[in-house]
Amino acid sequence: MDKKRYNDILVRLPPFFYVHVKNLNSNVLRIEVGPQTFTCLDHETVVHGPEAMVSIPPRHYCIISNPVCRDEEGKPIQYKHGQVKLRHGDSEVRLEQDPFPLYPGEVSGTILPLQVVHADTAIHLKAIRDFDEKVDSKETVRRVAGEEWLLWARRPTSP
């Protein structure tokens, strides 16, 4: 038995690590998260990992390309064969949170610190797509693509 195939049979995943496993019969990728000792079946192979989960520290953010689609409860939506559904060509900003794995097809950008707007200054913002901005707990402002505005405040801002 060659060494590469032997490594695919048994994978020891420490805490906060994950692997992408491909089912060779259905050609579907799934994710396995540690801590566990994962044993591949005959029709499975590890195609990515073991890889450390993405950990975003306080007052930082990360942009995820091709994020998974999620339902109202925050669970990833899957096609009927088990493959997760992605929002191809889209991006999602993720702020400080518990470490999370990247699903097959998701791409993580660089983890960057949040920008702070200092006293008596503002940031010039321009919307690249339509969205609803929560101004406070009661008020929401609808922003449309191409709209420009100034953000005045001494607070961290997310992209």
Write down the overall geometry. Answer: elongated
Order of helices and strands: HEEEEEEEEEEEEEEE
Mean pLDDT: 85
| Helical content class | under 10%
Portion in strands: over 45%
Rg over CA atoms: 20 Å
Count, helices: 1
> Based on DSSP secondary structure assignment, what is the total number of beta strands?
15
Q: Describe the biggest sheet?
A: 4 strands, antiparallel
Uncertain spans: none
Measured between the Cα atoms of the first and last residue, the distance is 50 Å
Classification by helices and strands: mainly beta
Write the layout of secondary structure elements.
Elements: H1 3-9, E1 10-13, E2 17-23, E3 28-33, E4 36-39, E5 44-52, E6 54-65, E7 91-100, E8 107-108, E9 112-113, E10 115-116, E11 122-126, E12 131-134, E13 140-143, E14 148-152, E15 156-157
Antiparallel strand pairs: 1-4, 2-3, 2-5, 6-7, 6-8, 6-9, 10-15, 11-14, 12-13
Could you give a quick summary of the protein structure above?
The protein has 159 residues and is mainly β. The protein has one helix spanning 3-9, and strands at residues 10-13, 17-23, 28-33, 36-39, 44-52, 54-65, 91-100, 107-108, 112-113, 115-116, 122-126, 131-134, 140-143, 148-152, 156-157.
Architecture overview:
4% of the residues lie in helices and 49% in strands. By secondary structure, it is mainly β. Strands 6, 7, 8 and 9 form a 4-stranded antiparallel beta sheet that branches. The protein has a 3-stranded antiparallel beta sheet with strand order 3-2-5, covered by helices on one side. Strand 2 (17-23) and strand 3 (28-33) form a beta hairpin. The longest helix has 7 residues, at 3-9. The protein is elongated.
